[in-house]
Amino acid sequence: MPKDAIDTALAAARRVLSTEIAGLTALRDELDGAFTEAVDLLAATKGRITVTGMGKSGHVARKIAATMASTGSPAQFVHPGEASHGDLGMIAPGDAVLALSNSGDTAELGDIVAYTRRFRIPLVAMTSRGKSALGEAADVTLVVPAVDEGCPMGLAPMTSTTMMLALGDALAAAMLERKGFSSADFQQLHPGGQLGRQLMTVKDIMHIGSAMPLVPSGAAMSEAIMEITTKSFGCAGVTDAAGRLAGIITDGDLRRHMGDAILRTPVDAVMNQQPKTIRPQALAVEALGRMNQYAITSLFAVDAEGRPLGIIHIHDCLRSGIA
User: Fold this and answer.
1) Which tens digit of pLDDT belongs to each residue from 88-112?
2) How far apart are the first and last CA of the chain?
3) What pTM, to 2 d.p., does this model score?
4) 125 has which bridge partners?
């Protein structure tokens, strides 16, 4: 490709990006109390937040609905055209509506707007014209600054849709913080893919109950060897009279203490009295990192008092796709 063609393409790209950055900067600087009112209204919604819009605003609305739903604010997208042919039934008392329209006079939104007013369903508008039909009808109007579009002809929505998308992200983030939505909550809604694996906790994959290789303090090594052999974790935990993890015996400890009297030796004489442990609520990736750090293959998950609640093996992490 000729150099001048490359230079022209880069110049166009930089011009569009600069225009959109300017739009986002203006949006940030002009945020006011209406944004807080919108967050108050949407966060208080007992049902679903219906996000709607036509054309390019509709595409942005779909993404905003998806972002809200994935961050603890149940949401759905309803197409304004379909709403006029039965999908208004998807909007129920207790719901709220977030409607997007750059002009604020999108005819296709008329039925949804009228429906919210008739049944007293809270309506938040996102538009560049606060004095438009949509802006005047809404309970809260978020005015997107009127700035140049990235399109060189000023026709195709570019900067305006970018600002709407960013404003939707800002609403979702503010509601997330308002509701105290945690990474554990996030994991519940994202069980699949790499993100879900990164957020998986020790509790999600640990072995519990009778699957744990445990022997009481004072037991003979013969009992510990049986636990190590049958439970296949390469170790056995030793618990004291209060049920706390007092130590651990590994395959390596067996080899170091091997002798004629090993079977009659009490476990307390062989065990490591400072076993490496982890909280059940810790991320599984943290458990994997700790096992790699100490060159071990298993970790007991213990509660605040040191009682074993489960055990995790390095193979559990690998099987779950955590690496």
Assistant:
1) 999 999 999 999 999 999 999 999 9
2) 42
3) 0.67
4) 99, 141
